[in-house]
Design goal:
123 residues, Ribosomal Protein S5, domain 2, 4 strands, alpha+beta, four-stranded mixed beta sheet, single chain
């Protein structure tokens, strides 16, 4: 089910934004906070400064695809915030950035740590 993997309510985003630890790498900023659940959830924030709707949607699709391939350690709520430079960044750059952020925060599951650099260029 979709709702068990994603942050869906504004209150969930607010909790992560106010209480979470921040990590930044290139075009992506990440905030994370423990949620006390058996699974991790994540969400994306792509503001208007990234670009117009078409550009923001492309960035969100890239972020979702990178996260679809990841196995996260349980018990975390994570928000990825796209910076303006994400509009010009390719898929591989965004993937590398998220890999670095998750590794630095220790949020990758043990079986996903070795696959941190399996980059595929999707444009």
């Amino acid at each position: 089910m979709r709702s068990d993997r994603y942050l869906t309510k504004p209150e969930q985003y607010e909790t992560v934004q106010t209480h979470g630890r921040s990590f930044a790498d290139g075009p992506v900023l990440m905030k994370s906070v423990q949620n006390g659940l058996q699974s991790s959830r994540y969400g994306f924030s792509v503001g208007r400064r990234v670009g117009k709707a078409v550009t923001r949607n492309r960035v969100k699709r890239r972020l979702r695809e990178v996260m679809r391939r990841k196995t996260l350690a349980p018990g975390w709520d994570i928000v990825f915030v796209a910076r303006a430079s994400a509009a010009e960044s390719g898929f591989a750059t965004i993937q590398r950035s998220i890999d670095n952020l998750l590794a630095r925060a220790g949020l990758l599951a043990a079986d996903d740590v070795g696959t941190a650099h399996d980059a595929v260029d999707l444009g």
